[in-house]
Amino acid sequence: MPLNGSYDVDLYLIKKRSTIAKMIKKMYISILHHLKITFMNTNKFLVGGIVGGIVSFVLGYLFYNLLFKSYFDENAFPVDLTAVKWWANIAASLLFGFLFSYIFEKAKVASIATGATMGFVIGLILEANIDLGFYSLGMLYKNLTIIGADVLLTAVIAALIGASIIFAGGLGKKAA
Fold it and tell me: Which range of residues forms the domain containing residue 156?
């Protein structure tokens, strides 16, 4: 389209400005949508991580210090509960919950059953790694049977952590 007069130049600039305005509007909407999804995912991650950490701490205390304490004291080196650094124990539990929450968010876990299954597998692999590492250094465990029991117990706890994260954090629900 030739630009022969002032009218044509003005019309061309108006169309150009309109196109640029539309592009800016689309970019703005896209950025807002991305920020909204990121904010929603951050909330799900935080809620899931905190709930997972609480479940980890409570179940760890229940299973290791109440239900199976005598078994672990006989087969591993006993833990004196008065010497436990509780702040570190709570921090470790929260980190475990946040690790699961992060993995589940990235994997887009959508059901409680999948969360429990993934939690079981992740717990099994992580605890086997940790326990075998300690065993190789002659620390904590007296035999391989206790390692098997500890790995299995941790995997069960991790399955419950996984299910609770999906349930409480709403990670299975799509962001608006």
Answer: 42-169
Where does the pLDDT of residue 56 fall: very low under 50, low under 70, confident under 90, or very high at 90 and above? very high
Query: Quick one: how far is CA 22 from the chain centroid?
Result: 38
Q: Is residue 47 part of a domain?
A: yes
Q: Taking the model in full, what pTM does it have?
A: 0.73
Domain assignment of residue 1, yes or no: no
Q: Which stretches within the chain are classed as H helix?
A: 6-60, 69-75, 86-107, 112-136, 144-169
Q: Is residue 17 part of a domain?
A: no
Can you tell me the distance from the alpha carbon of 35 to that of 8, in angstroms, rounded to the nearest whole number? Answer: 40
| CA–CA separation, 111 and 49 (whole Å) | 16
**Which single residue is written with the structure tokens 């390692």?**
147
Q: How many domains does the chain have?
A: 1
Rounded to whole angstroms, the Cα distance separating 109 from 172 reads 6
Q: What is the mean pLDDT of the chain?
A: 82
Q: Please give the Cα distance from 97 to 111 (Å, whole number).
A: 17
Is there a domain that residue 31 lies in?
A: no
